[in-house]
Design a protein that fits this description.
The complex is a heterodimer of chains A (about 750) and B (about 120). Chain A has 25 helices and 23 strands. Chain A has about 750 residues and is an alpha+beta fold. In chain A, strands 15-19-20-18-17-16 form a six-stranded mixed sheet. A five-stranded antiparallel sheet of chain A has the order 1-3-4-2-5. A five-stranded mixed sheet of chain A has the order 7-9-10-12-11. The longest helix of chain A has 28 residues. Chain B is about 45% helix and about 20% strand. Chain B has a five-stranded parallel sheet with strand order 2-1-3-4-5, sandwiched between helices. In chain B, helix 2 runs parallel beside helix 3. Chain B is globular, with a radius of gyration of 13 Å. Chain B starts with a strand and ends with a helix. Classes of the chains: A alpha+beta (about 750), B alpha/beta (about 120). The interface between A and B is large, with 67 and 53 residues.
Chain lengths: ~750, ~120
């Protein structure tokens, strides 16, 4: 890829981070929790978007960012109070900026008219005009360097009349170049006398002379007459002057450009060559003083020391010299000390590299193969009868440990904080709040919680859906809240945390909670439950996840929830997750999603059914049972239930559901896996035997074969056989329906 | 021996752009993400030229420049500041802090190299 295109991709990635920072900062401002750092961070975010956009010539983005930045700069400088109105406008501007970024990325067009309106609103906040010609007020006085005429005069006169001083420094004209042919007609005489400041800023005369030489032949002379006697010499002082006669027919501006960086830090004159050298102003010589100085006893100075001083002064670069006294003040030094203290933290935090996702995925796949291979090797060694205590077995144990660690580490590479999903939510909340007329405060927790990138990408839609629901249906109207004695502002909380090897996402609100009688009535009306059914509160709450429970039209008027919750549940299930709800009338509801940290491996229970080996996800299994004949009841011709403590749950023969056998086996000779589906419904799955628990590498069945009802994926076992991974929910749903025979599927290899 | 340039910028985009332009011009490049980090990298890599942004977290460009100029070992290193056209006051303040020169954003690789040539001893 063109490296610039690559940087563009980086830019858009960075924009997302900056926009998130911007939004977070503005929210903090809104909540009154902002300090100076927050305002700076907000400013920086817009500034950086503008900078990058400028580099890629994204004009719409640059212009809008510029206006925004200008207003933020006013806030930063204390010229504009960040009151509620200001922040509201800025939040709108931040949304607009996000739209413009998206448009610049090529995903649709931004509403430029709206951008213009917001830009004007922004401009109206401050007192700065819009447009690129806006000149932020300068609160810093310009450089105030006053040339010292006497010094120049001395220097200039000394060129022509070298006078030896008492130390024996004889100023001389140094010809640095072979004298070029006399300037043919036109050219420039440049006189340069650097001030100490010029050197202090690490500017040097050499590059300047080099620049001039690029313009044409130069006759350069150095005037060292300004060098004082040793006792008066400041190692960091500036004592030298240069005169350059440039024989080139170039514009004055071109010559001046070379001195762009040193303007103000030197005395500079650029005169046409055909005019006589600037007439030196004869400074009246104080003869008395000169004589007094000459008579003063001069300490004997060894010649080599003088030479050392000259060596040091002539290049005039302050190297290896002690710091000037001003810098030694503790006040001035403290930030540097602080910097050093902070620095170690910085380097560790920033030690990151970016790698193509493809490469990571390839690595993950290879590690998956390694895990399978290692398992096969272990099994073959075990089968060969080699003693557990043998060196080979011990070595294999270590290999297994190592393989597992490699696998964990590789998985960790794909892990990312959920922040990228969370950061899109505040805008969503603002938009829904605005369209529903409710006041909503979003609280987020656990943004740094890490989970596999694939999981993150697929979390966005369900979370969006649940947040929408929480505001639209969970929170009451402002009037109702006030009636109920609640604060006007509703709170929606989005939290992420790790719990027993899974990631848990919670969306809660402090609304009215689920209207259970209403939900129950709807379920009865739609024929989803029996009118006489005795359901616990939890069971009623979870009815909203049933397919066919709701459509937007029927629930948008009730104070419960339910818009497409079955859709949410399905997408969570597709990720190997589950979702549940708990609700307290009058206090609010909490949706809890639990998802695997990765989609690449699975902890499973390996079981035998008929001739086949199946893997059941461990997360679905509540417990395993040894059925007793007395606990099993037959209902109708085919249905059976089993008593599990005080309740009956359906008994499902896996072999029958998958079409592997028609004759129902005796439950007492098998084992039951008590499983729970995502809706909280339970079932006992009858299998022949349990082989054990193990972590398996998931291989897509769809990618390698085709979708099979009741089967989620496949894996390869230690002995090299392919085993199918059971889709527990699907199996429960398939109960009683005509099973899709999979006997044609080639299983054991 | 090629010249080592230290770039200090909190924007990854800007760092990447500088890296691309400087590498193409044959410079060695070391990077830092803010002023604090910059002072640390400076100590480790002793660059011959520094290019720094102004607006950065933790320690901005002004603080960084002042820090370099206070550092006995490195205060002679030329520092170029990345500035935007629209804010001349930033340039002045950077110069007061001890900046050697400046590069106006958005910059072309040619402008960048020219600015470096102008300050590199």
């Amino acid at each position: 890829m063109d490296p610039l295109e690559q940087i563009k991709i980086t830019f858009f990635q960075e924009c997302q981070e900056l926009l998130a920072d911007l939004e977070a900062g503005l929210m903090a401002l809104e909540a009154g929790e902002a300090d100076e750092d927050t305002i700076n961070a907000v400013f920086r975010a817009v500034h950086s978007v503008k900078g990058g956009a400028g580099a890629f010539g994204m004009e719409d983005l640059v212009q809008f960012a510029h206006v925004f930045e200008t207003t933020l700069d006013d806030t930063r400088a204390g010229r504009l109070d960040a009151d509620d109105h200001v922040i509201k406008v800025m939040l709108r501007a931040s949304d607009m900026l996000a739209d413009l970024v998206t448009a610049a990325q090529g995903d649709g067009a931004a509403d430029l008219a709206r951008a213009e309106v917001i830009a004007q609103e922004l401009a109206a906040l401050g007192h700065t005009p819009t447009g690129a010609d806006a000149e932020p007020e300068s609160d810093i006085p310009g450089l105030d360097f006053t040339p010292l005429p006497a010094f120049v005069a001395e220097a200039a006169s000394a060129i022509d009349e070298p006078i030896a001083d008492e130390l024996g420094f004889t100023p001389m004209r140094v010809i640095l170049d072979e004298p070029p042919a006399p300037p043919a007609g036109r050219g420039w005489r440049i006189q340069l006398t650097p001030a100490a400041d010029m050197y202090a800023k690490a500017n040097d005369v050499t590059p300047l002379l080099r620049e001039l030489e690029r313009l044409g032949p130069c006759l350069t002379s150095l005037d060292a007459a300004g060098v004082p006697n040793l006792t008066a010499l400041d190692a960091e002082g500036a004592y030298l002057s240069w005169t350059v006669e440039l024989a080139a027919d170039v514009a004055r501006d071109q010559v001046a450009e070379a001195f762009e960086f040193v303007e103000g830090d030197c005395v500079l004159s650029i005169e046409p060559l055909d005019t006589p050298p600037a007439v030196a102003i004869e400074a009246p010589l104080d003869l008395e003083a000169l004589l007094a100085e000459a008579r003063a006893p001069v300490p004997p100075t060894p010649e080599d020391e003088i030479q050392a001083v000259i060596d040091e002064v002539v290049p005039a670069i302050p190297v290896n010299v002690s710091p000037p006294p001003v810098a030694a003040s503790p006040l001035a030094a403290s930030p540097a000390a602080q910097a050093t203290a902070d620095a170690s933290g910085a380097s560790t935090a920033q030690a990151t590299i970016r790698v193509d996702l493809e490469r990571v995925d390839r690595l993950i796949n290879l590690v998956g193969e390694l895990v399978i291979n290692q398992a096969m090797l272990t099994q073959r060694v075990a089968e060969s009868g080699i003693a557990r205590s043998s060196n080979v077995s011990v070595g294999l144990d270590e290999l297994e440990q190592l393989t597992r660690e490699i696998q964990d580490s590789v998985m960790a590479i794909r892990a990312q904080p959920v922040k990228s999903v969370f950061q899109r939510i505040p805008r969503l909340v603002r938009e829904i709040a605005a369209s529903t007329g409710k006041q909503v405060r979003l609280v987020t927790e656990g943004e740094g919680t890490e989970v596999d990138k694939t999981v993150i990408e697929r979390l966005s839609d369900p979370i969006t859906h649940m947040i929408r629901n929480a505001i639209d249906h969970g929170l009451e109207s402002t009037a109702k809240r006030l009636e109920a004695g609640k604060p006007e502002e509703g709170v929606v909380k989005l939290a992420a945390l790790h719990r027993s090897g899974r990631i848990v996402i919670e969306v809660s609100d402090d609304g009215a909670g689920i209207n259970r009688s209403r939900v129950r009535q709807i379920a009865i009306d739609k024929g989803l439950i029996d009118p006489e059914a005795a359901l616990t509160d939890d069971e009623v709450d979870n009815l909203i996840f049933l397919p066919g429970f709701s459509t937007a039209a029927t629930v948008s008027n009730i104070s419960g929830r339910g818009v497409g919750m079955d859709v949410v549940r399905r997408s969570i299930q597709a990720l190997g997750g589950r979702i549940s709800i708990s609700s307290t009338p009058g206090k609010g509801s909490t949706f809890t999603m639990s998802l695997p940290l990765t989609l690449a491996v699975l902890d499973g229970m390996v079981v035998s059914v008929g001739e086949q080996t199946l893997v059941t996800p461990l997360t679905a299994i509540i417990e395993t049972l040894q059925p007793k004949a007395a606990d099993v009841r037959t209902l109708g011709p085919t249905s059976r239930v089993i008593a599990v403590r005080d309740a009956y749950v359906p008994l499902i023969d896996i072999g029958a559901v998958l079409g592997w056998r028609t004759e129902a086996p005796d439950p007492c000779e098998g084992v039951c896996l008590l499983v729970e589906n995502e809706g909280g419904g339970r079932a006992a799955l009858l299998v022949d035997a349990i082989q054990g628990q193990r972590q398996v590498v998931i291989k897509s069945l769809e990618a390698n074969y085709q979708q099979v009802a009741g089967i989620a994926a496949a894996t390869i076992l230690g002995d090299g056989r392919v085993a199918l991974i059971l889709d527990v929910d699907a199996v429960i749903a398939m109960r009683g329906k005509a099973a899709n025979p999979v006997s044609t599927l080639a299983l054991a290899s | 021996m090629s010249l080592t340039v230290l770039t200090v910028d909190d924007s990854r985009t800007m760092r990447d752009m500088l890296m691309l332009a400087l590498k193409d011009a044959g410079f060695d490049v070391v990077q830092a993400v803010d002023g604090v980090h910059g002072l640390e990298v400076l100590d480790q890599s002793s660059p011959q030229v520094i290019i720094t942004d102004i607006n950065m977290p933790r320690m901005d460009g002004f603080g960084f420049i002042e820090g370099v100029r206070r550092d006995n070992r490195h205060r002679g290193v030329p520092i170029l500041v990345l500035t935007t056209e629209s804010d001349p006051s930033k340039k002045d303040r950077a110069r007061q802090a001890g900046a050697t020169g400046w590069i106006v954003k958005p910059f072309s690789p040619a402008k960048l190299v020219e600015a470096i040539r102008r300050v590199a001893a």
